[in-house]
Here is the input.
Amino acid sequence: MVIRKKGPHSGPYENPMKIAVAQIQATADVRKNKTNAERMVEAAAKQGAGLVVFPELSILEFFPRFPHRYEFFELAEEIGGPTTEWFASVARKHGVHIVFNLFERSPEHLCFDTSVIVDCEGELVGRQRMMHIAEEPGYNEKFYYAPGVDSYSVFELDGWKFGIATCYDRHFPEVFRSFTVQGAEAVLVPTGVAATEPFSDIYEMEMRAAAVTHGVYVAMANRAGTEAPLSFLGRSMVIDPMGSVVMSLDGKPDQVVTVDLQKEALRKARVLFPYLRDRRPETYSLVMSEVGAAGGGGCCH
Here is the structure.
C-alpha cells in the first residue's frame, strides 16, 4: 500500500530531499525528552530538512530492558493520543515531516512498537507497526509487544517514497523487499541498538548490504547514552544505494545531522546493480515456507 502526501517541500520529481536523523538520549523524564527532541527538530529545520527521523521509543526510556514489568503498560497510548499530538504540533511549528516511534495501545487493547509519520501540517500520514519481535538479554520485547499484522506500507512525501523498518525488522530482507517492490526509494530505520557484540560489529555492515541489494537509501536513527544495563551505540547514519556511508554520527547523545537524498544516485545504483529488474518471483515460493518445512533449517541432533 502506497500512501501519498505532499507538503511545502514538494517540487519537481527530480528534486533532492533533505532528511535529518535525530540521535537522542531518552530518559524517564518525558518532559526533558520532549525539550531535547524539539531542539533537534528546530536545528534540522534550520538546516533545510524536510523530514526528521527519530529513534525507537523516541521520547520514552527504553523499558524493554526490564523483563516483565507491568507498570510500563501505563506508558502505552493510542495513535492520535498525547505523543502524536505533541509531535504533530512540533512538525507544524517547524514545517517539517516527522517520523517518531511510540508504545502503541490499540483499540483492541493490544500493544505494539509503532512508528508514525506526521506531515509538516501536523496531519497524521500513517503508521508502521514492528512485525518481528525480539527476545534476548536487554530486549525483553515479547512481553510488551504484539507482532504487527499490518501490510508493509510505503509513504510518499514530497515526491519520495519511504518504507519504515523499525529496529528488529531491519534484520529481515523480506521487509526491505516488500518496500522496494512497491517503489520505495529509502527505508527509514528507527532503532535502539546497544553497543554489544556482535550486534555493534554488524550494525553498519548489515545496512550497507541492504542498501545495495535493495537499491535504496537507508537512514538509521539510533538511541545513544546509557540506560543500565544497556549502553546504546549511537552511530546513526545514512547509507546511499551504492552502500556508501554518506553520514555517520559518533556515539554521543543528542545530535542531529542532515543529508540530501538524490534521485540520480538511485538511478546509477539500479543500473549498476539491476537486482530489482532481474528478480524471478516465480522461483521464490520457499521463502514463504516455515523454517525447516522444505527439509532445511532447524536444529541437528
Observations:
- Residues 2-288 form a domain with the Nitrilase/N-carbamoyl-D-aminoacid amidohydrolase fold (CATH 3.60.110.10).
- The chain has one domain: 2-288.
- Helices lie at 30-46, 82-94, 141-144, 173-180, 199-214, 263-272.
- DSSP finds six helices and 17 strands in the chain.
